[in-house]
Amino acid sequence: MAEPKENPLMEKIVSLCKRRGFIFQSSEIYGGINGFWDYGPLGAELKRNVKELWWHAMTRQRDDVAGLEATIIMSPQIWKASGHVDTFSDPMCDCLLTKKRFRADQIEPQSGIVYSWGGAVKLGKVEEKIHKANDNPPDNQIETIRANANRVFVRLQRDVEQNENQNSKTIAIEVLRLIRADKSAASEESFSVLVAPGKPPESARKIASQFYAQRGVEVTHLQLEQIEKVENSTRFNPENGALLTEPRPFNLMFKTYVGPVESEEGIAYLRPETAQAIFAQFKNVLETSRQRVPFGIAQVGKAFRNEVTPRNFTFRSREFEQMELEFFIKPDEVIEAIYGSVASAAETGRADLPVGQDAPQRVPTTPQPNWGWQAWHQYWVEERVRFYEGIGLSRETLGFHHQTPAELAHYARACTDILFKFPFSKKDEQGNVAGDELEGIAARSDFDLSQHQRFSGKPMGVFDEELRAAWGKLPEEKQKELWKRYYDNRKNYLTKTAKPDETPEQIQKQATADADGLTKGQYIPHVIEPSAGVDRLILALIANAYSEATKTDDKGKSETTVTIKFHPRVAPIKAGVMPLLKNKPELVKKAQAVRDLLRPWMNVFYDDGGSIGRRYARQDEAGTPFCVTIDFDTLGEKPELLDTVTIRYRDDGRQERLKISELLDFLLSKIR
Ligand code: ATP
User: Fold this and answer.
1) pTM for the model
2) Closest C-alpha to ligand 1, atom 3
3) Which of 18, 70, 282, 352 has its CA 20 to 30 A from that of 258?
4) Phi and psi angles of residue 238, each rounded to the nearest 5 degrees, phi first
5) Residue 583 CA from chain centroid, whole number
């Protein structure tokens, strides 16, 4: 469960997280549980701040997004409709020796020499039998065992025949005869080991011996069948070279039972994403929030995935939190019917720009009624990047991946992943780091609502009076063109998701009904989905903020200190409040009054233990942006400084004097 040794920065981060109470291994006292993490006092505050900021930006700051908090366990029908029951799986393979499990698509390609064996026989046992056989050859057993062991023996026989030494040949023939009589002395399983360049070939033999020993064949004669050079193979365990099983799909959903009986009917799943509840509650939210398309529904909450190989600390966990928005928009045909055309890239100011490039040209744009899916997609990518910038992740720390048509799900029109350059992110050949996914922003067409409509039998479409009115005024040619495009899209969707018993005629009929609905003002909204992981963001924030400085004193002794330079908005503690001395009641009283002044507004930490320098250092490591010190001047030792405090800035150690009466406003202006 420990981080790989070769990443010193990750090791430092993991150790700081434990030492300072950001993140602990779940169930640590019992040896931990792979893929599960607990957030300690500082981590819990950090996480709360991040979720609160997202919620604020997504819902309260906007008129067009409403919130939702749904259950983790939902009707299993939801996961059938969404496709998760059938297709939410990763290709997985196991090491044939250690049984360690790998995600097939994440195995590093390896090159080297592959040694392949066709089986093994247990020589020790055979020798023993030879002794016995001198007096009493067990001929009677031979026939019964022959069938099982044939393959192994044919090879051994061949080896024997090639051996010139007459004496050993005689013994070997005897061995063969006897070994046929005992199937526990042989394994016919084939096995291979990859040996990386520069490694001794004996290492392969050693691994193979272990493999056959596990099958009861301990002191072995290994039957080497083939030696082959391979390049970029993902068929071997990168840790020991042992062959892996063939990849097979592994459903990532955690299963459970609802009710007292563990029966088929009671099967339910822990949600693998928060998004589906939003689709399932789409109609309820639409009706109760008085929203109209375009509008969004936001949700933050737990998600569970039985990841094959949890790794990179919290980056790939089995229990994690997501912050998801489903932003429902009008299909492009509807926009065209109402506004004559869909806003061009030039009008939206950025839809043509590859995301993440030409950043200065990406002026914020106010959504326009004639935006189609591309403009909305670009808009949300940009909004999300701005959110990250606002909590301290600059554009330089981020990367972008535009999914290629081959990577996209069949229903998706585009998907842009926002990446963060984590310490474990890989470098390409030129040394550039693209990063790993923090958030995906997908244009998912009308797939999700359509699926829930089909599976639940409940209508998921909306009626748009503006569309109905506009349709009547369209020239017939335009009506025909839009009808046909909508029809084609629906037919395409219905064909891709058809049940085995659905005929092409039925599909055409349904697509015709859907396109006819358009002419009456009805359509199923499309959706843009920005979907972010809380835990990955927390890890990104910690990695981004981690900084070390080494100071050497006059005696040449050096000390390395850690400062976590969180943006004040996310910092778990906003201010450390400290009386200069703890044994001066007047100082303590004043400091406590300052703490109580700030407390209703922000998380503050009162600290009176140890030298002031030590206390500052402790707060630096916790990522606290400001320390407030109450000293004798605060009490009026210098009358002109009465009721002032020292504010110390974490990042540069700068200090300045501030009136207590101005303190709250000062801090609020920094943390909001
Ligand atoms: P990946 O390709 O890394 O498995 P994904 O594309 O399957 O991720 P989505 O289904 O798009 O992920 O989920 C949206 C977000 O949820 C991701 O961008 C990520 O931040 C977060 N997330 C997904 N899986 C995990 C996980 N196992 N642990 C932590 N966060 C996760």
Assistant:
1) 0.82
2) 437
3) 282
4) -65, -20
5) 50
